Amino acid sequence: MICRLALTAGINRLTDNKIMALFKYIHLLAVLIWIGGMFFAYVVLRPATSEALDLPHRLRLWAAVLRLFFNWVWASVGVILITGFYLIYLYGGIAHVSRHIHIMLVSGLVMMVIHGYMFFTCYVPFSLHVAKKRWKEAGEPLGRIRQLVAVNFALGLLTAGIVLIGDAGSV
């Protein structure tokens, strides 16, 4: 009987570890999609479009790219929230996780608020200006998007570093 209980506990622990690993992996993939997308947009696409395209073509391209990017980020945000809170639950709740998890949670929520602000107050007006071919008016919200992407990208890199250092310290 004792052996059976020990074996069952061992199997449950193994299953919990696999579930936790799966959710960490899914969480990380969503983060990589978001941060990688910001890197690509800011470091690669932005300079290339400025160099190769005139203003109307550049703004049309940005409207199409940002529409797809925001769709992927909204999906990533949902996945990050679901997996993140589930992982906290698996660890025993917010009171039982390390300080770096608290920092990651707060930083991630701040990034999500910035993303929401960027979408509703910058991207929506930008896309409307582009649709109506108001090129001059479209430039201002696109400039704010660029600045907010830089802030979110920096926050994402900082958060990743804190989590990496925090995980190394808890081993």
- Which structural class best describes the helix and strand composition? mainly alpha
| SSE topology string | HHHH
- Percentage of helical residues? over 70%
Mean pLDDT over all positions: 92
Amino-to-carboxy terminus distance: 34 Å
Total DSSP helices: 4
Q: Number of domains in the coordinates? A: 1
Describe the main β-sheet briefly. none
Shape assignment = elongated
Query: For this entry, what is the oligomeric state of its chains?
Result: single chain
Please report which band the strand proportion falls in: under 5%, 5-15%, 15-25%, 25-35%, 35-45% or over 45%: under 5%
User: Which runs of at least 5 residues are low in confidence (pLDDT < 50)?
Assistant: none
Number of strands: 0
Radius of gyration: 21 Å
Provide key terms for this protein.
elongated; single chain; mainly alpha
Helices and strands in order:
Elements: H1 2-52, H2 55-90, H3 99-131, H4 135-169
Provide a short characterization of the protein structure.
The chain has about 170 residues and is mainly alpha-helical. It is about 90% helix and about 0% strand. It has one domain.
Model description:
The structure is a single chain. With 171 residues, the chain is mainly alpha-helical. The chain has one domain. The protein is built from four helices and no strands. The longest helix has 51 residues. It is elongated and about 60 Å long. The mean pLDDT is 92.
